[in-house]
Amino acid sequence: GIIGGAPSWAAYNAFGAVRPEKESAYLTFVERVVERYGPRGVHHWMMWPEPDAIQSPPGELSRGARCEGS
Known about the structure:
Elements: E1 2-3, H1 23-37, E2 46-47, H2 58-61
Parallel strand pairs: 1-2
């Protein structure tokens, strides 16, 4: 799975960094995403580091890419 940026409630702007006072809530959000999709077969995750650096969605760039390891 790809987490392509912080939700609007956690970031300064649409593609910005997580606000310090929202870090704990954001980490809980990420944990719940992983818990929800793990049983559905999503076992590897990528935190998209620069969601504002490109125009196309991260999934379009990662077709065929593999993540190895745990």
